[in-house]
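Subject: design request, 329 residues
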């Protein structure tokens, strides 16, 4: 690996007018609704809407290009593609979100333009999901030791498919042990929670290599959650990271400007989306919310070009090499 790049995060250079991040007045209302959302979840992982329900939701908004990026799963893609046929003005990008960890730094990576039939892809994703199930069951057992008796079968019913911590959190809230799922994460299930059971994960570098070996672009999701972000982003840039989330509803204007400056200076594609799960949380932003700022269509074109380059450059040995190391998280 090349020497680690140092990413400077406290940039103060003003953005050029073409990148200014506030609402743009398109129709006299002072607001330009978002047209791109590259980070959405369904019941194929920890979202609460089926792929069909999600497509029907976004089709009623200003959005014209969306990506389904379920955790360690592409199982919602085929259903979403079938649903999208009814909306010819809507472009659907098949994607994935991959959890990675290196020491105490957890980083989520988004892959876009996945071919779900790529050899080696589904076998590896199945391994990752099995690790999720084992960790989730271990978490339920640890909760029992803490006097929190939720039923594993109920967790599976809530998940109705892929299982993870959000489903445990909902079971805890349902049983009255916490006020809401967010409370469960803060007290028990978060990174340093007393009931957290870690699962095997690839390192961030292996994650980038894996996504590229599968012919996808690789971008860093919600960078604000990454511990030691300058260091992590630095070595991911060295690994060929294609982009970083800049446009997210939870970012204020100043945050977006700083992220965009970092992206531009390091040749990264500025991406983003709502990270929508339909959990019904008080602060959850619905896709297409006219008061949010989405990535520009040009970012979609750049992601597609990056994915095309990785598809063209991969070799038969890429998959085995990319799957190399893994940590626990």
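Subject: RE: design request

Done. Sequence follows.
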């Amino acid at each position: 690996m090349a020497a680690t790049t140092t990413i400077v995060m406290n940039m103060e250079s003003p953005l050029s007018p073409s990148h200014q991040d506030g609402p743009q007045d398109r129709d006299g209302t002072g607001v330009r609704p978002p047209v791109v959302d590259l980070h959405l979840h369904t019941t194929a992982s920890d979202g609460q809407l089926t792929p069909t329900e999600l497509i029907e939701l976004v089709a009623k908004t200003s959005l014209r290009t969306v990506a389904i990026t379920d955790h360690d799963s592409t199982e919602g893609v085929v259903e979403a593609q079938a649903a999208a046929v009814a909306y010819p003005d809507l472009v659907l990008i098949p994607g994935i979100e991959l959890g990675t960890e290196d020491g105490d730094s957890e980083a989520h990576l988004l892959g876009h333009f996945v071919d779900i039939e790529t050899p080696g892809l589904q076998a590896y994703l199945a391994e990752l999901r099995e690790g999720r199930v084992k960790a989730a069951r271990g978490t339920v057992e640890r909760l029992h030791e803490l006097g929190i008796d939720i039923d594993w079968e109920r967790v599976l019913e809530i998940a109705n498919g892929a299982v993870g911590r959000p489903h445990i959190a909902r079971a805890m809230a349902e049983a009255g042990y916490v006020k809401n799922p967010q409370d469960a994460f803060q007290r028990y299930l978060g990174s340093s929670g007393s009931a957290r059971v870690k699962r095997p994960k690839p390192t961030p570098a292996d994650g980038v290599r894996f996504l590229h070996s599968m012919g996808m672009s690789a971008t860093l999701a919600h960078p604000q959650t990454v511990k030691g972000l300058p260091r992590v982003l630095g070595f991911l840039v060295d690994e060929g990271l294609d982009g970083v989330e800049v446009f997210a509803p939870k970012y204020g204007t100043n945050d977006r400007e700083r992220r965009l400056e970092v992206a531009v200076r390091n040749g990264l594609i500025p991406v983003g989306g709502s990270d929508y799960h339909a959990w019904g949380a008080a602060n959850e932003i619905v896709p297409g919310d006219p008061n949010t700022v989405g990535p520009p269509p040009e970012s979609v074109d750049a992601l597609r070009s990056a994915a095309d380059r990785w598809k063209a450059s991969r070799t038969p040995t890429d998959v085995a090499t990319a799957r190399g190391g893994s940590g626990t998280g």
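Confidence is low (pLDDT under 50) at residues 1-30, 325-329.
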